[in-house]
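[Meeting: bench + compute handoff]

Bench side (C.D.) handed over the final construct sequence. Compute side (W.E.) agreed to return the predicted structure before the next meeting so the bench team could plan truncations. Sequence as handed over:
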Amino acid sequence: MLTVRADRLSFTLPSSLDELTFGQSQALSTAEPADLRQILLILSALPESEFRTQTATLRRIEIADLINTHLSFIFDLADAADYPLPERVTIGGKVIAIPQKLGTSATVAQWWDLETKLDELKLPETGAPLHQIAPLLLSIFLCPAIQSEPYADIEQAYAVLPLIDSIPCTQALPIAAFFLSSYERPVSYGISYSKVTAKPRMMNWLNRRLSTFAAWTRSPIITRS
């Protein structure tokens, strides 16, 4: 993790995809590529009010340089789904074994709720972004193990979403991709997933911005932990 100190504020930021949570990756996937404020708030998990009141001298160019220099991995979110499928994942302090055969282990209630919610999303028949489907797949198929009770209702899945948001995206997205590949409906209906799109436009924008600003003298103090 990176520790950043600016004026009276100290906060940590992920320093690799492995340290980026699933919840953060979900938020980044819909963030405007040039919205530095939104990106910093997502990665720091701090309210905007903290930056407004505690970092009077932190300038926009410093934030741009921080993201460009230390956080460029966020533009490679598409790579997270290609990480190896874990056999187990720790969620809420509990070690969960990943179901390997959904065709025989998943219940009718799980399949029905998944199909209902996918219909409500009105996804395109091809190229549906994985980040749109992943929360459903993960919460529905992992909640029985997380809660140690059989699946009966979609509300159980909703209840575990905050816990799932906290696991690394390099574990969550491969699991979601695996669950999707195990789901029979994408084969029969032509629904597939596409990786979270990386945003090179953000890198280009940052580089242009950095080249137009004069060198700044006061920088946030950054340390690795």
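W.E. noted at the follow-up: Strands lie at 2-6, 9-13, 88-91, 94-97, 128-129, 193-194, 221-224. C.D. will use this when planning the next construct.
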